[in-house]
Amino acid sequence: GAVVSQHPSWVICKSGTSVKIECRSLDFQATTMFWYRQFPKQSLMLMATSNEGSKATYEQGVEKDKFLINHASLTLSTLTVTSAHPEDSSFYICSARRTGTDTQYFGPGTRLTVL
Amino acid sequence: DAKTTQPPSMDCAEGRAANLPCNHSTISGNEYVYWYRQIHSQGPQYIIHGLKNNETNEMASLIITEDRKSSTLILPHATLRDTAVYYCIVRPSAGGTSYGKLTFGQGTILTVHP
Q: From CA A97, how far away is CA A106, in angstroms rounded?
């Protein structure tokens, strides 16, 4: 149990376009999901916390208008990178906290490359 | 939030036990110790967590010192597939603004060799 999927696993887009990444908890409900970003040879950095049915909470320095998060159900959260630029190229990883527990389970990540 | 200190890298021979240390001297009484690992180009994988008592599951054992200032993750019989970056994280307790957030440090790069 505790499987989290992400779609797509990788995406290449042109500068100025928007990209949507989906995060799904497949076999459990997740009231809270988290979005992280990881640059090459660096550790994961938390971008935002997403709670089902409410607005996301963003970490300091993360632009909420650029990284739109929607958590419409207990099994799905989406991250949309708006007007993507090459500096947004990164590995985006989501995690889901199983409702009633405190353990986060991570998705496989999405590799975004902006040309 | 309590910080953790881990050695940057360790080696282990296949079939032997891998013992990964972690220092968390500023941990509070109700903060848990979590261990995750990340294999190259994949999302982190949950391994184990604990509060005070030693814990064991199908993947690993977690030994927490009595004063809770350090812990050791033990992979009893390391295989080549255990080569990964291992993260020791102190999870903030409930009630605070950081509750639930995981802060990833640089972790320990464990290399298991034949």
A: 9
Q: Are A23 and A94 in contact (CB under 8 A)?
A: yes
Using CA atoms of A18, A11, A62, A38 in order, give the dihedral in degrees to the nearest 10: -170
Min distance A73 CA to chain B CA atoms (Å): 19
Q: CA–CA separation, B5 vs B113, rounded Å?
A: 24
DSSP B5: B
- A contact test, residue of B104, B106, B108, B109 with most A CBs within 10 A: B104
Question: Which tens digits make up the pLDDT trace of A53-111?
Answer: 888 999 999 999 999 999 989 999 999 999 999 999 999 999 999 888 888 999 999 99
- Residue A5 corresponds to which tokens in the numbers above? 């999927």
The 10s digit of each residue's pLDDT in B30-67 is 889 999 999 998 999 999 999 998 999 999 999 999 99
Assign B80 to helix, strand or coil: helix
